[in-house]
Structure formats: structure tokens, C-alpha cells
Amino acid sequence: MLYWLTKLSDGGDLFNLFNYITVRAGGAFFTALIFGFVFGPPLINLLRRQQGKGQPIRPDGPETHFAKAGTPTMGGVLILGAVMVSTLLFGRLDNIYVWLVLGVTISFGAIGFVDDYAKVSAGNAKGVSGRVRLLLGFVIATVAGVVAMWAHPDTLQGQLAVPFFKNVLLNMGYFYIPFIMIVIVGSANAVNLTDGLDGLAIMPVMIAAGTLGVISYAVGRIDFTEYLDVHYVPGTGELLIFCAGLIGGGLGFLWYNAPPAAVFMGDTGSLALGGGLGTIAVVTKHELVWAIIGGLFVVEALSVIIQVVYFKSTGKRVFLMAPIHHHFEKKGWAEPQVVIRFWIIALILALIGLATLKIR
């Protein structure tokens, strides 16, 4: 919105600053951060009054989690509010990718909100049926995939970029849409599975957002893409605004989600953030690199899949408990140890993913 103030600029005044994506990204970051600090306490108080007993605790979970009973959920509303306000304020609203990522994020957030509401209302951890959530997620991802293909340059439509190789594209044809659906829905649910400890999910999400923000900015500049030998996707630079807002909003949320958490993000936040990040990976043609950057989320999701399949086949368990962060809790790791070590892993994987821009 503020970008349009550049129309009043003569090239040498304050309004001209809004021409620069980096300046607007900084504005988005601080706006989202302040939003989180200002609206965090009243939102938490509101959620605490409305929810009573707070988020239901899994009866089969680690015993240390029972002390968290009464903590309100749906804190993802705070992050989504910060991201929306900052992106709409500082982003270019004539950019299709901005609206696409925002639309997917809010849509998955709506699914998560309904699921959280169902859990709190019923007083158990079941919520909305998993099949229903997946079905709605795939519908959203299908629409997103079609829009992304339509918005991409003709030479990139239906193409899968291969990291570590210069200008290598795999023509997936009609299979590209189902692939996009798996990327976006898989991302949403992988982040959702990671959100099981205080502060565990939000920091890796911010790390991933920072990494994808850099990639979006680089891929959206033809001079950078020529130097790095990556594919040029005009307009993706504006997604740096979204990513900066997500980092700012995430930090504001982490202030209240740090152990012991005063609020959980719930499915409202985790599904939304995972879906949004997956969509950025699709838009920037870095779907495979996203599997590296978000490797922590991938491992969390795989641990659940492996556990379920192996248990149904043999009646035995591979992990003491899934997702895998609970496995380490069962092995005696303190919650802060699990959280901080997983943060370190997320940072290492993000740096490896970022390195793919140059290693060709």
C-alpha cells in the first residue's frame, strides 16, 4: 500500500525510499514485530477467557506436558495478523504472487482455526477429521498450483528446477499440479507435526522464511539470476516483504511462546505458516531446495509416517513416540535441549539450502 506513495515522489524525497524492496521489507519486519508486542497480551487474555481449560493435552504424551494444561491455543492468529498487516502495508498489491501466498496462508489458517476450535470445544485432541483437513488442503493447493503455473513465465510452466545443476528443468507436464499439491499440503502438515514443544516450530519457521526471502529476492532480479545461474521469475522479490513480516511476527509470538509458553500457535498458525512457505517454494521454482531448507519438518513428518506404517505392519514401534521430538523427550532430553538442538539443525539445513544458489 505504501508503495503507491512513490507516485508522489520526485526521486529525491522520503517517498522514493518505498521504491526499494529492502526498505519496505525492513518496515514490514518492524511493523509485524510491534504488532506482536502490542496485541499479544490482550489476545492471550481473550483466548484464556474464552477457552477455559485451553488446548487439550494428549493423554499418551510425555508426562512433563501435563503441567501445560490450561495454556490457551490459537495463538497463530497473532502471527497471521502481523503478517497480513505488514504485507498489505508494505507489499505491492498489484503482484499476483503476494496475493497467492497470502491467500494460501490465510486459507490454511482458517482450516487450522476450525480444527483448534473443535478441539477446545470438545475438550479433546481429536478436532476435525484428518481426511477432511487433507481434502480441504488439497483443494486449496490445487487452486494455488493452477494460479502459480499461469503466473509463471511460459518457459517455466510445468517445469521442475533441479538444484546443483545449471539451467536443468524437468518437464512434468500435467503431473506438475499434483506435485505442487503434495509440496504445499505436505509443508503445512509437516510444520503442524513439528509444533509440539514450546518454541520448537516458530524458530525453524522464521529461519526458513529468512532463507526463502533471500531466494525470492535473488530469483526476482535478473542480474542476480544471471550471476547465480538460477531461473529468473519476475515479481518474486516482493515475497521478501511477506517473509520479513513473518519473521517479525514470529519473533513477537516467540516472546509469549518461549518456555514456559503463555500461548500455543495451534493448527491455526502451524498449518498456515507451513502452507505459506511451501507456496513460496513453488513460486520461486525451489521446490526441491525447500526439502533441504525445511529438512527438519520433513524428518518430523517422516517419523510419524514410519511409526504408523511399521506399527500397523508389525505391532511394534520404531520410535519411543512420534513425532521424533517426543522420542528424544522419552529418552531423557529436557525440553529446552530438544528445542535448541532442533533450532541448530534447522539453521544448518537452511544454510545448506541457501548454498544451492551458488553451488552449480
Automatic annotation (TrEMBL):
Its needed co-factors are: Mg(2+)
Keyword check for Zinc, yes or no.
no
Gene Ontology cellular-component annotations: plasma membrane
Q: According to its UniProt record, which reaction does this protein catalyse?
A: UDP-N-acetyl-alpha-D-muramoyl-L-alanyl-gamma-D-glutamyl-meso-2,6-diaminopimeloyl-D-alanyl-D-alanine + di-trans,octa-cis-undecaprenyl phosphate = di-trans,octa-cis-undecaprenyl diphospho-N-acetyl-alpha-D-muramoyl-L-alanyl-D-glutamyl-meso-2,6-diaminopimeloyl-D-alanyl-D-alanine + UMP
**Cited InterPro entries:** Glycosyl_transferase_4, PNAcMuramoyl-5peptid_Trfase, PNAcMuramoyl-5peptid_Trfase_CS
Q: In which pathway does it act?
A: Cell wall biogenesis; peptidoglycan biosynthesis
Q: How does it sit in the membrane?
A: Multi-pass membrane protein
**GO BP annotations, alphabetical order:** cell division; cell wall organization; peptidoglycan biosynthetic process; regulation of cell shape
| Keywords tagged on the record | Cell cycle, Cell division, Cell membrane, Cell shape, Cell wall biogenesis/degradation, Magnesium, Membrane, Metal-binding, Peptidoglycan synthesis, Transferase, Transmembrane, Transmembrane helix
Question: What exactly does this protein do?
Answer: Catalyzes the initial step of the lipid cycle reactions in the biosynthesis of the cell wall peptidoglycan: transfers peptidoglycan precursor phospho-MurNAc-pentapeptide from UDP-MurNAc-pentapeptide onto the lipid carrier undecaprenyl phosphate, yielding undecaprenyl-pyrophosphoryl-MurNAc-pentapeptide, known as lipid I.
Task: Extract the HAMAP family matched here.
Answer: MraY
Identification of the protein by name? Phospho-N-acetylmuramoyl-pentapeptide-transferase
What species is given as this protein's source? Jannaschia helgolandensis
Lineage of origin: Bacteria, Pseudomonadati, Pseudomonadota, Alphaproteobacteria, Rhodobacterales
The gene coding this protein: mraY
